[in-house]
Amino acid sequence: MSSVVSAMSKAISQLGDRRIMAVLLKSVALTLAIFAVLGVAAFVALDTALAEWTGSYSDEIGAILAVILTVLGGWLLFRVVALAVVQFFADEIISAVEQAHYPRQADTARNLPFAEEVKNSAKGIGRTLAANLLALVLAIPLFFTAIGPAVVFWVVNAWLLGRELQDMVWLRHRHSGGGHPSHPPLSKLERFLLGGAIAALLVVPFLNLLAPIIGAASATHLVHRRNGPEYAA
User: Where are the bilayer-spanning segments (predicted)?
Assistant: First the structure.
């Protein structure tokens, strides 16, 4: 528990780093742009569907329904989109943390081939979609318990995010000869606690835009510190 808290504290303290700030601005802009496109697509789809089904309807009704669908879709898909966007910029975040705190590891990190990056991203997005669909199925019977669905989504995403965040860092060093083991370096408990903390931040307005960045930076600290304090600068 203390290792996760320490890693997150270090990650938060580096948010002012210009390299981290640059990634934050790019990831926020891209995330918002994706949801803007989804909103427009929802409006166009509803406009077409309502015109075919009813023959005539109010544009205001279509706009309201599009907003409602976008909000609901955003709530369900934000984790998927945010994680995918951060994976796109993961190397920049991890590199900034390594250069500031783990220069030895920064020197031995490997650049993932494009094909491997695409493969890893596709696997990550697939796991995210599958996990959240499973969470939705499990949450439906618990809908009237109020807190039940929230707990289900939190547990599923804690497991999911912990693994994805670890792999963002670990895969850069797995074959680098930098001392990292060939098996995942973090314990299941560490992954779950890190993923749980980031999953909780993802439901807090405004903080949810920072959460993926904090998660990637925190995972960098955990992965390197797990392999010995001599890695730290």
Answer: 61-86, 129-156, 192-217
